[in-house]
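Entry 12.
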Amino acid sequence: MTSAPPNAPTRGWRKTRLLSGLPSSPLAFVLIGVAVAAGLGNYFAGEASRAEGARQHAILTQSDRLLANMVELETGMRGFVLLGEEVYLEPYDAAQSTIDGQLSAIDDLTRGMDAEAPRHIGALRGAVEAKRTYAARVIDLRRTQGHDPAVALVRTGEGKRTMDAVRAATRDVQAHANAVLAASERWDRILSLVLSLVSIASALGAVGLLGRLALVRRRDEQRTAALLDGVFANAPVGLGFLDRDLTIQHMNRALATMNERGFGADLGAPIWANVPTLQEQLVPKLRAARDEGLVTNNVDVAVPTPSAPRGVRHFQMSFYPLRGRSGGAGAGRVQADGVGLVVSDETLRKLSEERMRHSEERFRSLTEATTAIVWTTSPEGGFEATPSEWTRFTGQTPQQAAGAGWLEAIHADDRARTNAAWLQALETLSPYEIEHRVRRQDGIWRIMSARAVPILEENGSIREWVGTHSDITARREAELALEAAKEAAEEANRAKSQFLANMSHELRTPLSAVIGYSEMLQEEIEDLGEEGLLADMRKIEANARHLLGLINDVLDLSKIEAERMEIFAEVFPVAETVRDVAATVETLVDKKGNALALEMADGLGEARTDQTKLRQCLINLLSNAAKFTEGGRIVLAVSRASREGIDWLTFRVTDTGIGMNADQQAKLFQRFTQADASTTRRFGGTGLGLAITRAFADMLGGRIEVESQEGAGTTFTLTVPAVYVPQNPVEASPHDHDALHRLGEVRPIPGGHVLIIDDDAATRDLLARFLERDGFTVATARDGREGLERARELRPRVILLDVTMPRMDGWSVLRTLRADPDLGATPIIMVTVLDEQNLAFSLGATDYLQKPIEWSQLKSAMERFKPSEHKGPVLIIDDDPDARERLSAMLTREGWRVAAAENGVAGLEATAARKPSLILLDLMMPEMDGFGFLRALRERAEWRDIPVVVLTAKDITADDRRRLAGRADRVLQKGGLSLTDLAESLRPLVGPGV
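Predicted 3D structure (tokens):
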């Protein structure tokens, strides 16, 4: 028994499935294949023939256009040659811009043709290029040499020859194209006839397949109907059918859901069954669809529904006829079996539109209500619809403002700047912002602030620009008024500061007299043995000095407010300064039975800051503690710590006094303010001390804090950096170390040596020999460090200092000397090859000599530092007769011979009459002030060696110090030291009795 191979059934099943939809006759299958192949062959052959025909026609068309462009080129050239106007070159330029493209197009069309085509195209291209070259030569000749040379070139006939060559080449191309086209058409006719016969014969043989194909089509229709049923049932929009009675016969799911939410109609009932108000709206449109076959789209229907937003659900309905049968005889038209219904729920869209409408209304209302002009432009930056606010404000008509016409309303001086800013914003899509002047409709120019931003689409393209124009004229006028008021206030502040400076001088002068006379009277009372009067005189002196301190406080406050208070940094030992401050306030502390304790931590070291201002801060805090504490304890604690790489000094003043509440602490540092009125009545004071202390703390880069409890005492904490760092680089100039001109400090200059600091041995030797021959005692040092050591050892009368030296240069030596408490007043003459006079004087140099040294200049500079050998008197120059009398009496009593003058002019006359051994000089005097006197004095070589001590009530500024540098030996302040101290400070300059 045999069996079939395993794969036989599979092959038979597949064959049945493959041919089940086709005729079973192999001949029919072959005929269909032949018919299809013949039809396709005929089709593709026809398409190929048509494509070839289209290509040849395109070659003909392009060659015609090329010839026309060459004619245009010739015409433009001739017009320009004849008239010389550039407008005639427009057709020439247009032809030039298209010729290359047309030649390329012809090249592309002929690619793949027979060998003749490239030859014709090459000839055509050569003729065209020759013509273009000729035309360019003619035009260039016309532009550069004029009409006649160009016409002469035209008359040569070269243009006609090149144009004839172009025409001939064009004819060759077209003739070749026509020949190819004719051959293609002949072949196409023959091939089409053959293929058509084959296709017809095959088609006749395939008629038998139609029955089979009809059955296949029926099955496809059934399958399509099933798909449509699925689409109908699951469509996202509501679909339904109404019969001729307009009752609902069918609904898909979406319509059923909408019906439940809104209409509430059942199958077999009209759609308006539960909403009778819809009948009047819908029935006419439903009947028009049923009876007249009209389609009605997008009918808006509102159905009251409690569950819907705002109680109404919005639907959009469309009606269309369902045609299926003919009407009665003679009806003359097709009637519908029913009406189709398409429904969509538009509730959310309506809500969105309503919100958008409300938003637009709000924006429109805001635009109309605001004083600004709101505008929009096209992406290109022009007004498409000119806003009414713009036309009302500027008076321009919409036509005038359209496009870029709005620029005409901008002031002529601002127009170019405005246009440039607007074009830049358009190019970069960046916000537009500018201020310019806009002409109002009454002709008045108003200052407007314009701002605009681009509105972009999701793809990044710009949709429009939205901007505003705001009138800022009032604001700008207010700013100008404010600026004027600020300038006036600053001028008033300057006037006030000048007034206070003048007043301080006027007040200090009589106070100095009071202090001086009280000192003299105390000495005379002691000589007379009237001890009972001494206490009264000391009270007079103390009160005068207190009043002088108040004047100084007011002047300090004025300088702080005017930002003219300067910082003079110097190096000093912290512990020594604290002890000195404690000794200064000891009497005040003891006055109310208080005890002062110092708690100084180890390692306080040295500080580099303004010692005078730091001392004043500590004195103010300790004085304040002593004032408000009776029979208590005051502690001054000092420590040093490093934070974030900076050394900080902390001074904590703690007392057991009356303390303060929170309200009193809040106004503690206000100027001219104390805790309350009762405090002022009980303890006195101006309320300036703590205000100045805080200002000084801020200037030194520190801060001051307070902790207090009413009835339990107060703690003030002052924190300053150990090394002052100037906020302004100008302040960093070390001229603040100029101890020679520091107010209120007197440092004797003992010794008679001249110290030469120079690394060059020859220079040291020459200087030493010259000075020794001139009567000086000389010491030398080889570099900066050795020089400092010798200076501290010898305390020289004057130092000659080089700049460029090893180990430590001259500038560093100068800074160190000026910061040294003992050597800071030593005169220093710079002797160097560098030309840095301004720097030297800013650092505190007394004089400046440049190498190679002129020995006459050195002699002149050193004359003033020789010990005085003449017998002249001490000359007092002061416009205050009381001051002259007081100083004369004191100096006479001390054994000095004295002369006096009332101003600078009289002082020069007195100096000329008899050369003084020393001059005591006031700065503020009539006719010639102290600065003018010094300038005139030092101009005379024979007077340059006269020591001058400035004794003034004027507040000395940094500029004053620079003016006095190299001219005055000392600067002392009236009232800053007693008459006895004054006499002692003069002795190192010249001895009494001379």
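Annotation: The first helix runs from residue 8 to 19. The radius of gyration is 56 Å.
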